[in-house]
Amino acid sequence: MNTDHQGIKVKRVTSRKRSRDGLRSHLTPAKKRTGSPEEPEGGHAVLMMEEKLEGDCSDQEDLFGDYDSILGDRAFLAKLEEVEFGMGCDNRVASDPGFDGAPHSPEDGYMALRTGDSKDCSSADVVSSLRDTFMDELPSSQLAFQQELLKKGAWSTNSSASPQTGDATGRTTRGRPTSRNRKDERDAEAQAKSSVTDRLKSAMRENATVSSLGVSTSAARKEAALTKEISAAMEAREAGPAGIDLGPFYGLPSKVKELISKQRGIKDLYDWQKTCLTLESVQQRRNLIYSLPTSGGKTLVAEILILRELLCRSMNALLILPYISLVQEKVRGLASLGLELDFLVEEYAGSKGRFPPVKRRKKKSLFVATIEKGHSLVNSLVEAGRLQGLGLVVVDELHMLGEGKRGALLEMTLAKVLYVSSSTQIIGMSATLSNTEDLQKFLKADNFTSDFRPVQLMEYVKVRDTIYEIHPKEEECFNFSRVLNFKYSSSMQKVDPDHIIALVAEVIPAHSCLVFCPSKKNCENVADMICKYLKKGFLKHREEEKARLLQELRESGAGALCPVLCRTVPFGLAYHHGGLTGEERRLLEEAYSAGTLCLLTCTSTLAAGINLPARRVILRSPYVATDFLKRSQYKQMVGRAGRAGIDSLGESILILQEKDRLSVSPAVLWSHWVSFVSCSSASPALRSQAKQLLSSPLESCYSHLMDANGQGIHSLILSLVGLKITRTLEQIRDFVSGTLLGVQQSHSCQEKSLWEIVQDSVEFLRHKGLISVSTDCENNTVLLVTNLGRATYKGSIDLTYCDVLYRDLSKGLDGLMLSSLLHLVYLVTPYDLVSQCKPDWMVYFRQLTSMTATELKMASVLGVPESFVARKAAGQSVRKPADPEVVGRLYLALVLLSMLKETDLWAVADRFRLTRGFVQSLLSSASAFCSCVLHFTEELGELWAYKALLTELMRRLTYCVKAELIPLMEVAGVQEARAKQLHGAGYKTLCHLANADPSLLVQTVPNLSKRQANQIVASAKMLLMEKAESLQEEVNELLSLPADLPSS
């Protein structure tokens, strides 16, 4: 071609505009030029421009600047016509058999084009050379368009008209065209002449509506490196032998190690962790149970295995935790990892969670769930036929299998995973497992056990003022250690006969201390008692931090502050139990971890919840309420002693009193008398009891499917039939034989055989109208679930209440009161909480007298007339007693209604004379039960009217704040007080939080640390990403071609 064109090499990455007046060329429209009217000539000018571009441009700049469009530039279109005309000439010249139509390299062809070289080249080669050179440099919006053209063959030439042959030098030549071929070429030229312009105009219009992706080359290189490492790890996993390190970081990219080091401060793994991660069972993805003492680092191993599943195998994972607070903490902690490594963290706790979860084509999800939500999640995946997409299930605190109703739910969940999906790996971990043989058989798992502790633990027992060191494995269990040397006045001796003040004064404030108490009230009393006798110097220790903590506590209570905390926090002390709100517990936990508080008096629930280690752990009594401590409870409590990386050792001290000897039988007393004769200061009964607690084996873990007259086995069989996992009695028996109950038949099924239990359970379900018996086409007896049965298992409704709930909902339709929320709130008030709250009749009566006439009528219809409550409040006898379940449930509904109206937790708790922790727990339970009732009504057509009503009510119960704060409270870790602060600072939406600068948040939001700000922003980004991905998946689903589309 003899045209004089310049090649401008341009890379567009971001949409940020920047003036580039100095880089205008003759391709720039005249109205946009601001430089010299003289145009540069030839290739030298172009090379100079390229050098300037290379020197001036960064991958974050937009080289197009404010260059709007070239569609209106006739000069450019004229040059395009010249190019097209040249392409036509090239085709005619190329018909000469002696013409060398292909340059030696794409660069040769490109230089010939841009320098105006007299050497001609074919149109195919010109286009090919342009394509090869510019494709990698196109903006992201244009690249997708050009790739689409390539797929359609827009860049290909008419090869049938001029077949290519290879010469001796490897270059291609074209055959002579015939007259017919010439006509085809002319037609093609004419078509190309019009189509190229049209395509270019169309592409430019399309580019104008597409936003470019803000991805830098450095980010792209990092992403490519991460992808390469993940691919290498996957290949090594498939090809490498078992028992060896499969990747830079145990099969994971090195970026994971960097993130763990940066975010957790963990530079290296313990030896037991390295051994566990390289076990043959782990490499071959067999099920595994591992058990270590508390604070040994079990969770990190589980997280590494989860990351392997998400990144290397591209499979979803499920992490089951025992408490809502632990789920929320884990979601906050893993959100930043998910953002860095491109996976989603989804919360399934309370009323949160989608069933079944969104099916994602690209990103994989980690579902973090409570035991109840984990069971519902597995059920939904089984019903949708997607359980095989769940690659890994991790259960923390596996000993929960032996914890009543919740243990039965966990057993059902794991049994279904084992039966339905053989490819899903199960990992269980715990610090207190005894009969691991039964659990191994149930889970078909290997076992790994270690007694590793990062900090040495020294156990002691205190009797009167004497302390004995414990040696559980030795015959002489107790060895004299020392006598307490603390001067007690007569008044102190009366207030503190157990010398708790002396024990804590030895370690605080330089070190931390936990004091476990048998009851909530005892926690408050002990904290109050200790601070009264501490020196005034404690008030000066971290004075500013403690003042800030009091302010945060006051803000979380809308200006109210517990008087006990008001007295104890200035001394660095606080109590911690279920009577506190979730926000109060979080603030106290963070203050304790930071060293602002040096002592917590707490109940046993702290040992099973968040990890708060201490230098010294004191057990105020060997009781939890009125029950003597179990060995597993004791191990969890003393396991908090010793802070890794801070303390060189940890101490636990169990306080025993003379009265405790009454719980030991004379036979036990006599058998241990000889062993403890040297310990003259303690009674034989006391020493025997202590040894039994300190050196006996852990309690065994047994199935609870048969508890409460077999409610667990009934629920299991109902879901098996409803999910079509089993359909006959024989199949049900085979399934049940694989559960923990089946493994422990000799212990749990002593009165009946497994076959009899299955038959009785099926009959029970048939009698309640939850399943029916039918025959298939081969006259075999099969079991089918009824509509009520399906609603029951999909709503996770307790079989004890399913018929009562259906009756209440059906009756409510006849006269549903919508002028007030009271009727709806009553219908979603949990049945099982009624026994935990006895009505205060005077409060009850005052609430009824403040009701509207419609509300009073509704209460009377339910069976709670005003006259009944008035008589109870006056202490008079009642002629016609009311149903105590209905009375108690309506009382709780009034508490919930007050919360929805006022949203002031402290005021409502004070009015009803309840602890604020119980009110908050009631609100959370009602929200979760409302979600269950919603799923229950969705399966029953006659209850269709409840769907819209309960959806909005569930949202209000979940957050119980003003509507403007709800988007902020969706973020994990953001409670009402923090949401108000964020909203006041201008962060009013989820998008605001996701795009916030953590440093700016710290400056604008009071009492917000940098770590908290980072967690909030990361959690908001994760939630925003999850919502965006869900919407995108819905779009893809709507636009995808149906698999069952009828064909002609």
UniProtKB/TrEMBL annotation:
GO molecular function, one term: hydrolase activity
EC number of this enzyme: 5.6.2.4
All residue ranges annotated as the Helicase C-terminal domain in the record: 499-709
Protein location: Chromosome; Nucleus
Keyword Isomerase: yes
Chemical reaction(s) catalysed: Couples ATP hydrolysis with the unwinding of duplex DNA by translocating in the 3'-5' direction; ATP + H2O = ADP + phosphate + H(+)
GO process annotations (BP): DNA repair
Coiled coil recorded as keyword: no
Biased composition (Polar residues): 155-164
Class of enzymatic activity (EC top level): isomerase
Biased composition (Basic residues): 8-19
SUPFAM superfamilies linked to this entry: P-loop containing nucleoside triphosphate hydrolases, Sec63 N-terminal domain-like, Winged helix' DNA-binding domain
Composition bias, Basic and acidic residues: 181-204
Keyword terms: ATP-binding, Chromosome, DNA damage, DNA repair, DNA-binding, Helicase, Hydrolase, Isomerase, Nucleotide-binding, Nucleus
Domain Helicase ATP-binding residue range list: 279-451
GO cellular component, one term: nucleus
Family note: Belongs to the helicase family. SKI2 subfamily.
Protein name, as recorded: Helicase POLQ-like
Native organism: Paramormyrops kingsleyae
